[in-house]
Automatic annotation (TrEMBL):
Lineage: Bacteria, Bacillati, Actinomycetota, Actinomycetes, Micromonosporales
Top-level taxonomic group: Bacteria
Organism of provenance: Paractinoplanes toevensis
Protein known as: Uncharacterized protein
Length: 148
């Protein structure tokens, strides 16, 4: 049974319903998910662009590194999920919104480079008066892609 090796959480701003996860050594521009026929996710070789179906400004990201593939995400808790391959040259990840910037070095998965990632997204009911609370959650579960 796979074991969780490390984890972190970070709140990040969302702008124009978009937020991007990226590797520090990768330069990659992605089309919006709705431009490539996907409802919420656009993946390149080294970055992922998420598009919220709702007009939100703050999302909470959970990052996890596993020693093997974790269990599939529960569809009730994570109605949007996808497993994708990523090549992460540095393994040092950041998040950023298109026009408001972001946060560097939010999670380090190491220098294995080839990963599989189980990504999930869910909106949550939120109180407009609770300005410091997220309106959505995202999870990224990484493991080394031994087939690559």
């Amino acid at each position: 049974m796979p074991k969780l090796l490390s984890e972190a959480e970070v709140d990040a701003f969302v702008d124009h319903r978009l937020i991007r996860l990226f590797d520090h050594e990768a330069q990659e521009n992605l089309l919006r998910p709705d431009e490539v026929g996907h409802t919420w996710l656009s993946a390149g070789s080294s970055s992922v662009l998420l598009q919220s179906p709702d007009d939100i400004y703050l999302a909470r990201f959970a990052f996890e590194f596993w020693d093997g593939p974790p269990a599939p995400l529960d569809v009730v808790d994570w109605p949007l999920s996808e497993v994708i391959p990523l090549f992460l040259p540095s393994g040092l990840l950041g998040v950023e919104a298109p026009t408001v910037g972001g946060q560097a070095e939010v999670f380090d998965v190491g220098e294995f480079q080839h990963y599989r990632v189980q990504a999930g997204w869910r909106a949550i009911p939120w109180d407009p008066n609770a300005v410091d609370e997220p309106q959505a959650y995202a999870v990224f579960q990484f493991w080394v892609d031994v087939a690559s």
